[in-house]
Amino acid sequence: MDISWVENTFNIEDAILLAAMCHQANLLFEEGEEEPILPNGFKLRYIICALAGVEDPESEVFGFIADSPDEIVMAFRGTDSFKDNESDQDLYQVTYPFARNAGKTHRGFTCIYQSTRDKLIRELNKLSIRKRLLITGYSLGAALSVLAALDIAVNTEFRNPIVYTYGSPRTGDPNFAYRFNQTVKNSIRIFNVHDVIPTLPAQAYPPPFTEEGLYYQHVQKDYPLSFQLNSIARNHFISCYFRNLSIKNPDYTRKLCANNPGFCPDTEVCVPFEGICSENNSILTWKECIMHCDKEPKLTGRIVLPEDSQYNVARQEFNTFFNRFPLVIVFAQETQDVVNAVRWARFWDVPIRMRSGRHSYEGLSVVDAGIVIDVSEMKRVEVDRKHGTATVQTGLRDFELYEILGSYGLVVPAGLCPTTGIAGFTQGGGQSSLSRPLGLAIDNLLEVEMVDANGNVLYANANQHDDLFWALRGGGGGNFGICTSFRFRTYQIDTVAYARLNWDLRDLKPVLRVWQEYTVSGADERLTPLLTIASGQLSFLLMQGVFLGSAKELRRLLQPLLQAGSPQEITIEEIPWLEAVSLIAATQPTSPEPFKSVGPFVDRLLPDEAIDIIQCFINNPPTSSVSVFFHGLGGAVAKVPNHATAYFYRNALSNMSFFATWSTPEGAALGIRWVEDFRQAMLPFTRGVYINTPDLAIKNWPEAYYGSNFKRLTQVKAKYDPKNVFTYPQSIPPAH
After folding, report:
1. Which of 122, 235, 293, 463 lies most in the core, judged by the most C-beta atoms within 10 Å?
2. What value does the CA radius of gyration of the chain take, rounded to a whole number of Å?
3. What is the pTM of this model?
4. What is the CATH number of domain 495-700?
5. How many Cβ atoms are within 10 Å of 515's Cβ, its own excluded?
6. Which CATH class is domain 12-259?
7. How far from 485 is each of 77, 187, 445, CA to CA, in Å?
8. For residue range 558-603, what is the model confidence (pLDDT) as tens digits?
9. Are the beta carbons of 41 and 259 closer than 8 angstroms?
10. From the CB of residue 520, how many other CB atoms can be counted at a distance below 10 Å?
11. Which strands sit side by side in the sheet containing 457-461, from one edge to the other?
12. Which CATH architecture has domain 278-374?
């Protein structure tokens, strides 16, 4: 009999009951009890024993199976011995052995489960499949319950196990998470946003950690709690999970505990630890501690904590594939707020991430259990007409900068996407619709205000901290400090010629052959050509471009392209600069969505072989929407030497970006694979990768992003952040 339930439906009574079951599983091991205390109606059926440890595994009790007339409960305990810790730390991955095409899982967890698996399945199969099967685990046991649930759903008649985990570490790679989410339809991952264990293992250990790197992802579905007890241990105790769940249904909890003496955990320890942040012998709440302690650095600005109603909106990234839960988010209102946040994070040894527009492709501007220092509410602009400059705070988005400066009749070459933050955009180089005539954003950057790892404010320009100024121009955001303002050179532009040409995808080959000729040396630098090739729910082949000249000149310049294929739409006109920016922005993603993308450089004309590969991938979209975007470079970009700034690939003709998004969870693995396969297929025809399109799957990322500039970047890092405070996957390390 196949019993079905609504997918991922949270039931508070189940959550409370199973938290107590996990507590009993812990007691079996901690206190050497022969049997757990079970609620009325439940009978013990089996004690789960497994081998823990790496080099000399030892048999330990890990939990039990019990049942009632209607339900079966399989409960696993958390980490509780030296051998358990050995297994926890064995984070290398093995192929999940109990289901086909299920990715890889944590080796230490998998070995524990594998050692007990056959006996566990045999005992489970003795019980009635007419009963609800509830699988639960805490900490290490949560990972075991995830491994067991997929195995049971695939290999037994219990097709629909219900899973509740508490404080679970990550168990496997994205392919495992995808297969689990597809198969185990009712799984709830309960976690405290202040608990460290759910942040482990890290999402990525890129090469050279291993040859291919290790990648981890949580299974669905998240159910966050927020209780800060000023103690790593207390924030993780199963008793404290139980207490905070019981608050949501106190009547049920009272009856459960009263009717079953000894079953519920003692929650007296679940109060804030008194050794931290005391003032006048009185204990402060976590929120008071953050903002009001006199002896420690204070956080200022707009503070968002996990218990605040705006927390979920505040933590959201543009790439919704990533789902992270920071300890605190600081929306800085001025530079001093950034200074205070850095000093606070250093004092409490809290991981730091900085954020401007939330557009990090790999979700690197948010971190679990850390602080996010967000400058997006710092938007002041000062225009100096006499010197032709504009000083802008780094919270501005691309289109906001265009609009504000446009009111003065001025332009700074910012990005194509209207919602990208200028902080990360600029530090990565800054490719725009004016790149060929005006160069990159960094080529027009005159000075940077930055808060360093000690909370000091530095000014970097050609005469002051010139080594840092070099690194901030192309070294990528988040490596050296938190940039709070930029001073740019401005240009007076009122009207431009704008082109928009549209073809059917069948014209891809002839159009791309001709389009790329507009990026070569000698081509008119007044035009920066763009080309989008999209398929899926919407399929089109679209060329756009801004030309610093007349519409008549542009039409004459585009004659070869107008004769390529059969254009379905031809628009060539003179329009205000801001209108041209708006038309280009309208073709860019504007709303948060899950996606995978990466952007290698093209440094020579693509041969027919390469164009055939592009057509093959575009004609076979695995998800709801895929695309390739070409951004014409050369011109003024190429006139700056490769080593003059940290942006290395100056001689590239264009930057091409592979992009996949999906409308269903199962599309994630397909989209990610499509992008990676596409990147690999184009390696013979591309060189390097634009740092603003990071990809954690890239093995030799230092060369891919920075070429031969990487060594100098590590030296600058060692000077300005020797303790590597600003660190994240693929961040620049300090030179030794």
Report:
1. 235
2. 28
3. 0.76
4. 3.40.462.20
5. 23
6. alpha beta
7. 50, 45, 11
8. 999 999 999 999 999 999 999 999 999 999 988 899 999 999 999 9
9. no
10. 13
11. 381-384, 389-393, 482-489, 445-451, 457-461
12. 2-Layer Sandwich (3.30)
